[in-house]
């Protein structure tokens, strides 16, 4: 991290970081979208005017404001305006509907709710009006930002350790959890990402995931620390997005494992000719990365790939660095930054550091989330290498217990990812009266079957895994071939609970 970025990383609040960057490089661009561009100076000035407009509407320090908005320049402006006021904001992923949104509004006790009107065929305003009947909040169209005179504003917040952010877990098995963050925990997470990637003012990044995800402020902090811009996508799809990447000269792209696979698929349509000539680095996290995918990206795309480990509760835990060895980049999640302490207890990863959340809205959930020493209990399994890199071996709930033997789903998945006919795979444990659990592999085939590769059958898959050296007791006893694995709409994680429900 350069001297300027290091100094900025000590800012107490997100708004202080915005203001100091605007003083340093007011005319440099920060947000790019379609044909629009916003500079750091404009970001501060416009966010202050939006803050004044919100203040005129009754938003005060501590007011809880929920927003469910797509990845737009206006979304960042609204979020920063709330940060300027010291309000408590609760971002909600745009793909959530009445049940999840209603739960988030009730639990957070939101007083205001900003929505995008009709977006991608869904009327968010109508949903807000339905939910507003409960009398909890006032809904308004977040696409039309309020405007006011900054002279009316109170002083910016000075305390960076108060809870001002409520993020929501995906809620894949139950109601979402409200995760409590501070400005400092978000700055710490973004600083980890920025430090690991070694970016410069000459880079151009990209935000291709929902800004309402915890990765939104994570990425924004990196832009503010280093003073470079990012291209924003309201709806990301390839190959349609490639024109934007090329036109703006994006040098850093990614998001999660699914994004790497999408770029690789486009590259394979035109081998030898870079899909984005300026691209030099793919980076992301949020889902397991098969080693074979790393090697394929580096070999076929000619770019570096660095992958990290984070979650809504701790936005950035470890990150691979561009100068790590190929072995570490392929098989580990990188190293933790200074200030992030990792402890392995009975194989489980536990964390302590400034980037760790303050807990959950539900006090009982908070109490269960930390051990007696104050370490956050992740539910992830892993170990540290001798040089401090973290290797994840799966989730506690992804350990399949077959006839009393523990089987790692990730180990089988990593091997199957090497199969030329496998596009993606999820391995799950299913209830079995004799074995306790049986191993089931659910495979999404590649789009085009390679020549000479036979049909994906259970016998063919088990023969392949035997040849790869997998122990016999770990071999799948069930194979399901699907057109597409079920995924969430944020970082395109595979939803294993849906597969368990379907095949149990």
UniProtKB/TrEMBL annotation:
Any one GO BP annotation for this protein: fatty acid metabolic process
Pfam families according to UniProt: AMP-binding, AMP-binding_C
GO molecular function: medium-chain fatty acid-CoA ligase activity
InterPro entries: AMP-bd_C, AMP-bd_C_sf, AMP-binding_CS, AMP-dep_synth/lig_dom, ANL_N_sf
Keywords: Ligase
Domain AMP-dependent synthetase/ligase: 19-360
AMP-binding enzyme C-terminal domain ranges (all copies): 411-489
Top-rank lineage group of the source organism: Bacteria
Database matches in PANTHER family: ACYL-COA SYNTHETASE, MEDIUM-CHAIN ACYL-COA LIGASE ACSF2, MITOCHONDRIAL
Family note: Belongs to the ATP-dependent AMP-binding enzyme family.
Name of this chain's protein: Cyclohexanecarboxylate-CoA ligase
């Amino acid at each position: 991290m350069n001297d300027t970025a290091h100094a900025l990383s000590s800012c107490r609040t997100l708004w202080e970081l915005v203001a100091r960057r605007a003083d340093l490089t007011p005319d440099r661009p920060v947000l790019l979208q379609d044909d629009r561009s916003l500079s750091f100076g404009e970001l501060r000035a416009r966010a202050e005017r939006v803050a004044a407009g919100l203040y005129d509407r009754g938003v005060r320090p501590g007011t809880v404001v929920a927003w469910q908005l797509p990845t737009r320049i206006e979304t960042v402006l609204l979020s920063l305006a709330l940060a300027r006021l010291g309000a408590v904001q609760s971002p909600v992923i745009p793909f959530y509907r009445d049940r999840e949104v209603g739960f988030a509004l009730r639990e957070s006790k939101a007083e205001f709710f900003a929505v995008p009107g009709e977006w991608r065929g869904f009327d968010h305003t109508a949903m807000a009006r339905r939910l507003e009947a409960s009398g909890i909040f006032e809904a308004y169209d977040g696409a039309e930002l309020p405007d006011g005179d900054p002279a009316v504003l109170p002083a910016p917040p000075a305390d960076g350790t108060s809870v001002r952010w409520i993020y929501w877990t995906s809620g894949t098995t139950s109601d979402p959890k409200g995760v409590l963050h501070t400005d400092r925990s978000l700055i710490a997470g973004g600083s980890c990402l920025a430090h690991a990637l070694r970016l410069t003012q000459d880079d151009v990044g990209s935000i291709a995931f929902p800004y309402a995800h915890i990765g939104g402020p994570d990425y924004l902090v990196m832009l503010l620390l280093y003073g470079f811009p990012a291209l924003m996508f309201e709806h990301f799809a390839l190959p349609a997005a490639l024109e934007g990447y090329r036109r703006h000269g994006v040098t850093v792209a990614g998001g999660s494992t699914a994004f790497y696979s999408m770029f690789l698929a486009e590259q394979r349509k035109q081998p030898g000719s870079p899909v984005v000539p300026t691209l030099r680095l793919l980076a992301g996290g949020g889902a397991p990365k098969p080693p074979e995918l790393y090697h394929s990206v580096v070999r076929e795309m000619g770019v570096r790939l660095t992958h990290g480990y984070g979650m809504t509760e701790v936005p950035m835990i470890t990150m691979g660095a561009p100068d790590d060895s190929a072995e570490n980049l392929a098989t580990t999640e990188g190293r933790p930054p200074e200030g992030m302490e990792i402890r392995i207890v009975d194989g489980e990863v536990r964390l302590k550091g400034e980037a760790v959340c303050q807990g959950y809205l539900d006090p009982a959930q908070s109490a269960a989330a930390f051990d007696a020493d104050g370490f956050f209990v992740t539910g992830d399994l892993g170990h540290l290498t001798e040089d401090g890199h973290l290797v994840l071996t799966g989730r506690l709930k992804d350990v399949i217990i077959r006839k009393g033997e523990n089987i790692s789903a990730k180990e089988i998945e990593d091997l199957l990812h090497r199969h030329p006919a496998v596009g993606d795979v999820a391995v799950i444990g299913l209830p079995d009266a004799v074995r306790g659990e049986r191993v089931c592999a659910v495979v999404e085939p590649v789009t085009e079957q390679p020549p000479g590769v036979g049909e994906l059958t259970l016998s063919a898959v088990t023969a392949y895994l035997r040849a790869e050296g997998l122990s016999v007791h770990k071999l799948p006893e069930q194979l399901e071939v699907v057109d597409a694995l079920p995924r969430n709409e944020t970082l395109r994680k595979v939803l294993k609970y849906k597969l368990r429900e379907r095949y149990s």
